[in-house]
Design a protein that fits this description.
Blueprint lengths: L33 E2 L2 H7 L2 H9 L5 E2 H8 L3 H13 L3 E3 L3 E2 L5 E2 L1 E4 L6 E2 L5 H12 L17 H20 L27
Parallel strand pairs: 1-7
Antiparallel strand pairs: 2-6, 3-6, 4-5
Pfam family, one: HTH_5
GO molecular function, one term: DNA-binding transcription factor activity
Protein name: Helix-turn-helix protein
């Protein structure tokens, strides 16, 4: 799979924008994925922070706007926003005047989480996924669960083709007028069925 955080933060292709902070181009000019630093891994080890990255993916949002969307206290959200800014996953844009003339800073996802591997478990991803899914009417869920038995070479082919498909759609230009969709993919050993005997 392309990353342990494949759906967190995937903006328009790098060819149409600057590289995210801390991400270097590879020999082919495309960004290279790398291991997350300890600080980056800690920043991404939160379902709430992953949701913030998703919220600020297509349009910059202020701390107040993020807090209102999530139904949380702005002071609580600000701690998470600052953590994401400090680690380069969010960028602060030029301040603007908000309601009642208050100075507010909008934040935008940088796309960096797509390019870092993190050793954190799946819990933050699942938390973010389940929170977002809970807000979608059941008739709009398109889900499938599949049990496979694949020899090693076919499993590698499956992973490679799935990775290529996801990367292809990640790299396509984003249409700001199009309807937003979310994809969650998990491939894991199936512990509910007996393994073949040697």
């Amino acid at each position: 799979m392309p990353s342990t955080l494949p759906d967190a933060d995937a903006p328009e292709p790098v060819s149409r924008r600057q590289l995210p902070p801390g991400i270097a181009p590879g020999p082919d000019g495309r960004p290279e994925r790398r291991q997350a630093t300890d600080a980056e891994a800690r920043a991404l080890a939160s379902g709430l922070r992953l949701r913030i990255l998703r919220l600020a993916l297509d349009q910059p949002l202020t701390n107040r706007e993020i807090a209102e969307t999530l139904g949380l206290n702005p002071a609580t959200v600000l701690h998470h926003v600052r953590t994401l800014v400090d680690t380069g996953f969010l960028e602060a844009l030029e301040a603007r005047r908000g309601r009642r003339g208050a100075r507010e800073i909008p934040y935008r996802s940088t796309g960096k989480s797509w390019y870092v591997h993190t050793p954190v478990g799946s819990t933050p991803l699942l938390e973010a996924f389940l929170s977002e899914l809970a807000a979608v009417p059941p008739e709009q869920h398109d889900m499938v669960r599949l049990g496979l038995r694949l020899p090693r070479e076919e499993l590698e082919e499956f992973r490679s083709r799935l990775d290529a498909l996801i990367q292809e759609f990640h790299d396509r230009p984003r249409d700001p007028e199009a309807e937003p969709w979310s994809l969650f993919v998990a491939l894991h050993p199936d512990t509910s069925r007996p393994r073949p005997r040697d």
